[in-house]
Amino acid sequence: MPRVVVVLGLVSLITDVSTEMVTAVLPLFATLALGLTPLAYGLLDGLYQGATVLVRLLGGFFADRLRRPKLVAGTGYALGAAAKLMLFPAGGPAALSAAVAVDRAGKGLRTGPRDLLIATAAPRDRLGGSFGVHRALDATGALLGPIVAFGLLALAPGDFGMVFVVSFCVAVLGVLLFVHRVPEHRAERPAGLGSRPISVRDVASLMRIGGFRRLLCAAALLSATTIGDAFLYLVLLSNESVTTRWFPLLFVGTSLVYLSLAVPLGRISDRCGRNRVFTIGYGLLLCAYLTAILISGTIGVVATLVFLGAYYAATEGVLPAAAAPLPPAELRATGISVVQAAVAGGRALGAVTFGAIWTAAESDTAVLAFAAALTAALLAAIPMITRTEAR
C-alpha cells in the first residue's frame, strides 16, 4: 500500500477521533441541552450535510486549478479544527449552527483534494482496496471518538464543553501530521490544456461523460433517501431500544462494523464492479431502516448497527474509487468532488424531510416513508449505473 495512502489514513483517524467525539454527543446536546425539536434538529442536520455541497465543489475545483491539493486539503483540516473550538461557547441554535457550518465547510474543502492524493498514489486496478484502507483507518477514528466522548462524560456528566475542548486539541494533532508528513503533489499540466488553467466550462464538460453522468445521478437520487446516523439512533432511543446513557456507543458499533468490512468490500469492488457494490450498500441501508422499527430490544439495535456499518463500508470508499477513473486526469479532483457534493446535497434534503415527517407524524412513520422512497430509488438507480463500469 502506498505510504501516502497510509499517512492520509492516519490523519483521517486522528481527525475523526476529534469529529466523532462531537458527533456522538451533538444529538443529545442539541435536543436535551438546547431543547431542539425533531424538525429543528433536522434543519441542523441538513446544514451539517448541506454546508459541504458548494465547498466540496470549490475544493475539488481549486485543487485542479492550482494543482496544489495538499494546500487546499490542509486549509480544510485547519477549518475543521477551528470549528471544534467554536462549539465551546455555543449556547443556542445560532451559535451551534455557525460552528457546524464551519466544521462541514472544512470537511467539504478537504475531501476532494485528499481523495485526489489517494487516487494519484494508488494503482488504478487497486483503487477500491486503497480507498478501503484509508476508510478503514478513518473508521478506526470514528470508533475511538465516541469512546473518548463516553469516557469524558462518565467523568463529568453533562460537561459538553470539556468534550469540545479535547476534540479541538486532537484535531490540531491531525493538522500537524498532515502538514509535516504528507508530500505535496503537483500534477503535470496535460498537453491538451496548454498553459491555461481549468475553467468552469471544463468542469461542465464532465456531464458529457456518460458513465460519470449516470453515476452522479444515481448517487444523488439514493442519497436523498438517506436517514442520518444520528436520526436513526434517535429512532432507537424513542422506541426505547437503547437508553440515553449508552447512546454515544451506538456510533462505536457502526464504526466497528465499518472498520471490519471497509477493506474487504473495497477489494471485492475492484474485482466484481464498484458500481455494483455501491448499489448493494444501499440495499443494506434499507435493511437497517426496517430493522430499526420492526425489531425491538438489543437484537434490533445490534442488527441495525451491523447493516448500517456494512452500508458505509460498501459506499464511502467505493464511490470515489468508482468516480476517480471517469474524468480526465486534469479534472479528477473536481469530478470526485462533484459526485460527493451531490451526495451531501441529497443527504441534506433527506435530513430536513425526515425531521419534518417525524414532527408531523411519528418516528416509525417517517422511517417507513424513507424505506419506501429508498426502494423506489434503488429500482431506478440499479439499471442506471450497472450498464458500464470503469476499471
UniProtKB/TrEMBL annotation:
<feature type="transmembrane region" description="Helical">
    <location>
        <begin position="136"/>
        <end position="154"/>
    </location>
</feature>
<feature type="transmembrane region" description="Helical">
    <location>
        <begin position="246"/>
        <end position="265"/>
    </location>
</feature>
<keyword id="KW-0812">Transmembrane</keyword>
<keyword id="KW-0472">Membrane</keyword>
<protein>
    <submittedName>
        <fullName>MFS transporter</fullName>
    </submittedName>
</protein>
<feature type="domain" description="Major facilitator superfamily (MFS) profile">
    <location>
        <begin position="4"/>
        <end position="389"/>
    </location>
</feature>
<dbReference type="InterPro" id="IPR036259">
    <property type="entry name" value="MFS_trans_sf"/>
</dbReference>
<feature type="transmembrane region" description="Helical">
    <location>
        <begin position="160"/>
        <end position="179"/>
    </location>
</feature>
<keyword id="KW-1133">Transmembrane helix</keyword>
<feature type="transmembrane region" description="Helical">
    <location>
        <begin position="215"/>
        <end position="234"/>
    </location>
</feature>
<dbReference type="GO" id="GO:0005886">
    <property type="term" value="C:plasma membrane"/>
</dbReference>
<feature type="transmembrane region" description="Helical">
    <location>
        <begin position="277"/>
        <end position="299"/>
    </location>
</feature>
<dbReference type="Pfam" id="PF07690">
    <property type="entry name" value="MFS_1"/>
</dbReference>
<feature type="transmembrane region" description="Helical">
    <location>
        <begin position="366"/>
        <end position="385"/>
    </location>
</feature>
<feature type="transmembrane region" description="Helical">
    <location>
        <begin position="338"/>
        <end position="360"/>
    </location>
</feature>
<dbReference type="InterPro" id="IPR011701">
    <property type="entry name" value="MFS"/>
</dbReference>
<dbReference type="InterPro" id="IPR020846">
    <property type="entry name" value="MFS_dom"/>
</dbReference>
<dbReference type="GO" id="GO:0022857">
    <property type="term" value="F:transmembrane transporter activity"/>
</dbReference>
